[in-house]
Specification:
The chain has 11 helices and 12 strands. α4 crosses α10. Helices cover 33% and strands 23% of the residues. By secondary structure, it is α/β, with parallel strands linked by helices. β9, α7 and β10 form a beta-alpha-beta unit. The chain has a 3-stranded parallel β-sheet. It has a 3-stranded antiparallel β-sheet with strand order 3-4-5.
């Protein structure tokens, strides 16, 4: 899977959209993001205190989060198998990891849905404590640099890296257009989610196409990946660029495995990171310690096996290991 960068090369589910173009998060992000930490009932506080006291790493958390008993997680919950909604509940790799991390820290990881290219704004404005959304850890994101312009447009994020994925090319089953590599996309329509690393890869390839005397890629971008997949399924595009685990999942499940297939090798594999404000190093280090703990106790491996993504597993959750 390719990590999402918000332009998943600038900001990128490998999702990297230009940080400077990120709009204020919409109603979905705002829902439930207000003052959860201030309104817990007495019984809720007692339950939280009990949970925290028995959790091995609770004392590593900032006091306000430990008291609240909740970590608010910004996520674009439409990216199976990393995160998606099932029967009104967030499920997938990230929610399962969040649950395991929460047991170590004595808090609940509360996944709150929002558009991918607005998650960083939500984090920086305090609506979220963390981002877990197949977001690629890149140096541009770490430094708050817009990868299109090369200009610094924000404070940047810290990341706790927890998975490795590259971008894959997803095509219609049977590969009717004979797509095998990025070079085969020149002059053709490609649909994908905007604000991702995949978008950055497609734009870079389009530039290469024109330099090589070929036609540019006709890029169509959408707010969500399912919209891009629908265009591909309908034959309105020849390919969708996607994180490898997501591409593989869609190839296996969509239409009972009859809609899509993955072609070629993974492109620009890199780490997914849990995004944290640079001002909150205590929370960052607590999450890193919890990730290390679930790797050592085997919970992490069980989750990787459950979702058939062991090829992307890491053994050391580095901080800011992106490139």
């Amino acid at each position: 899977m390719t990590a999402r960068t918000t332009r998943r090369t600038t900001a990128a589910r490998s999702r990297l959209a230009a940080v400077g173009s990120i709009a204020v998060a919409g109603a979905l992000i705002l829902t439930g993001c207000g003052d959860h930490t201030d309104k817990g009932s007495d019984s809720g506080n007692s339950d939280t205190a009990s949970s925290s006291s028995s959790a091995p790493l609770a004392d590593k958390l900032p006091a306000d989060i430990r008291k609240a008993g909740v970590i608010k997680v910004g996520s674009d919950i439409a990216y199976p198998p990393v995160e998606y909604m099932e029967n009104g509940k967030a499920v997938g790799i990230d929610p399962d990891l969040g649950e395991a991390l929460g047991k170590q820290l004595g808090v609940k990881f509360d996944f709150q849905n929002g558009k991918f290219d607005q998650l960083i704004v939500g984090l920086q404005s305090g609506r979220f404590n963390l981002i877990m959304s197949a977001m690629s850890d890149t140096k541009n994101r770490e430094n708050g640099v817009d990868s299109d312009s090369g200009k610094k447009v924000g404070a940047g994020l810290d990341f706790v890296d927890y998975f490795t994925a590259g971008t894959s090319i997803l095509v219609q089953k049977g590969n009717p257009k004979g797509i095998q590599s990025l070079d085969d996309l020149c002059g053709k329509v490609v649909a994908l989610q905007k604000g991702t690393t995949s978008e950055g890869i497609a734009r870079d390839q389009s530039t290469k196409c024109t330099k090589d005397g070929k036609a540019a890629i006709k890029l169509q971008t959408f707010d969500t990946d399912p919209e891009a997949l629908l265009r591909l399924k309908q034959g309105a595009s020849v390919a969708d660029l996607n994180d490898f685990p997501v591409a593989a999942y869609n190839a296996k499940t969509s239409g009972g495995g009859k809609d899509f297939e993955v072609v070629g090798d993974q492109i620009e594999a890199g780490p997914y990171g849990i995004g944290v404000s640079k001002e909150n190093t205590q929370l960052r280090d607590a999450v890193a310690a919890a990730m290390t703990a679930i790797i050592k106790n085997g919970e992490y491996q069980k989750i990787m096996e459950k979702w058939n993504v062991t090829d992307g597993a890491v053994t050391d959750p580095k901080i800011n290991g992106g490139s």
